[in-house]
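Run: sequence + tryptophanyl-5'AMP -> complex structure.
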Amino acid sequence: MCETTATVEKKKVLSCIQPSGVPTLGNYLGALKNWVGMQDEFDCTFAVADLHAITVRQEPAKLRQQIYSIYALMLALGLDPNRSTLFIQSQVPEHAQLSWILSCYTQFGELSRMTQFKDKSASHADNINVGLFAYPALMAADILLYQPDFVPVGADQKQHLEIARDIALRFNRLYGDVFTVPEPYIPRAGARVMSLQNPTKKMSKSDPNPNGYVSILDDRDTVIRKFKRAVTDSQTQVCVGEGKDGVNNLIGIYSAITGKSEEEIAREFEGKGYGDFKLAVGETVADALAPIRTRYNELIADKKQLEVYYREGALRAERVARKTLCKAMKKVGFVL
Ligand code: TYM
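>> structure
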């Protein structure tokens, strides 16, 4: 019998995260954790979306620190710079270039419907800048430059992904097959982690109440304390149900980390109260985050090594991005 030597090209994956503070458990379960697992099967590209971060006012020294910090955290989670392309968005100028082109193929009306724009312009009423409005065109550029098949994100980014797909389809209709039209990859459990204090709101690092979110770098005691204080309801049974937003959220978190189904979780905690359940979720989350924190502390202490990784990552990313940008520019009619 002959063995075939044909190599099958891996499908491509792209995603990004903003450097706007230490990521939360929501970022971890909705996105980052899945990125790590996708590295074996896919050709992966992941970036720190720093251009996106300045759509709200940032303090320069703090922003710089947060960019380093997220990059180190991506490595600490297990993203491997030898297998995946890991870079900082602003170091690859093609993102801004393609973003301009794509914004000329994006309608005012469709951007006006973006819920994130509506939310952010309400919470930053003194700074409703053009960048905040045009943000989805930049995100479309981030994605389309790398021709990915899948984009792993939490449920809150679904609308932005849909507009990226619409822009790609529109451009392709006009100019032929320029962009791959990507599929969202949204996890079954953990796609929308809610605030521990107000489980009708998504968990977010900009929550003014720190008990509402768990940061990936919170220490063990802090993690457990936050879960012990998590808002539940007046019932007693650990199971998914209507009007049980707090418990539903905790079950979702526990399921995303342990891989157990909702039914298995309900069986595991049968006859036990919310107190036992909250402690178990807190301990499980703390156990999952502990090794990440240790590794992060080593990586952030060595900025020289980080620089080697992000410079190399930017070079690799740019080789791919340049090719797509040139293709799009040529189609539009620019002189190259
Ligand atoms: P960002 O930085 O807000 O969040 C990074 C990732 O975390 C997910 N996420 C959540 N998932 C579940 N529950 C939550 N409470 C939660 N909060 C955040 C987000 O869905 C996201 O996947 N615009 C993007 C960054 C971006 C991007 C891109 C993403 C820029 N360019 C291109 C994909 C492709 C953002 O602000 O994510």
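>> summary
The beta strands are 12-17, 43-48, 85-88, 150-152, 183-185. Residues 121 and 128 are 5 Å apart (CA to CA).
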